[in-house]
């Protein structure tokens, strides 16, 4: 039991819930889901999961080290660490979340979660690649306060699990007592809004009480418009994680003084130096980003994204049996997959060549991957390769017939 990460089973559960909501939304309001946007959300979430395979080796090891040097020791039968863990994670999430909206370099990380112009369960899975590093800075205090790694993981897991279901427009409001105490879909829709009255509001995770207490609560009124004030206008999950960092660099480069250049990294995301208005920055372009993609491309991408999702689930499940170098290689291969496949959806000029390169790399890397996660016998690896050979052949044939995009 201890050899496997059973939390990996949450991946197909979350995907199944997202597909169910999309099916219901298709009958109630077809505009709630857009193919490319939802797939981009899932790709960002998958890239986060792939990156976390590596990043949590660092963050969790650091948490364990801090716990070993904790300032407080609680009796083994004490309930205090559980109370500290559950309440502490929720409060510290509020503080981290609020800081991530008002400090530019933190927003560069967290803003990925807000880039979607739709609002549904797929958005809940749109997690930023580098966010475990910023979370840890806030949560580390729990280790020093004597909250064990096990208690922390349970409290953190429950906290994140709760937040999944509030990313929906299908649930309008809950009974008044729930709306007053808990973070609900209505409150969290406000948090994702770009209208002035909704910016930097409703930072809570499970409890909305923190927002009421600290003056950041805003009820839902006007129909919420989603996204970011500087739209991403791309499905690329890698660029999604780099876009605002690149913008901060432009801000710093346009600064008139060294002090202003440094301030660019710590200012509110709305701050710009005097006279800054780059020609390539889209501030208020009308309409949601919806580049057309042919049905055949959609079918191809869904098939390969499904394979990538299965590979990711298996990797997370077997991660404790994999070496760090193997985890890095698998995370890199998955990241390449998501970038290439979303490039095909957008019909970017480089997508077909990148996808062909990805298929070649996987053709040679797949036997090694099967051996690493098994280990399987050579015969089983060969059988698996023969089983997948038709898919590889069909994929290369499809790419060879796909017209080259010019824009």
List the helices and strands and how they pair.
Elements: H1 10-28, H2 35-68, H3 80-102, H4 104-110, H5 121-124, H6 131-144, H7 149-165, H8 176-181, H9 185-191, H10 209-214, H11 237-254, H12 258-263, H13 295-317, H14 324-346, H15 351-373, H16 378-401
Helix pairs in contact: 2-6, 2-11, 2-13, 2-14, 3-4, 3-6, 3-7, 4-11, 13-14, 14-15, 15-16
Report on the structure:
The chain is an all-alpha fold and 407 residues long. It folds into 2 domains: 6-214, no CATH class; 295-401, no CATH class. 62% of the residues lie in helices and 0% in strands. The chain is built from 16 helices and no strands. The mean pLDDT is 91.
Q: Would you count the extended β strands for me?
A: 0
Tell me the helix content: 55-70%
Which secondary-structure class do the elements indicate? mainly alpha
Our estimate of the beta-strand percent is: under 5%
| Sheet with most strands | none
User: First CA to last CA: what distance?
Assistant: 50 Å
Structural domain tally: 2
Overall outline: globular
Spans of at least 5 consecutive residues whose pLDDT stays below 50 are none
- Please report the number of helical segments: 16
Summarize the structure.
By secondary structure, the chain is mainly alpha-helical. The chain contains 16 helices and no strands. The protein has 2 domains: 6-214, no CATH class; 295-401, no CATH class.
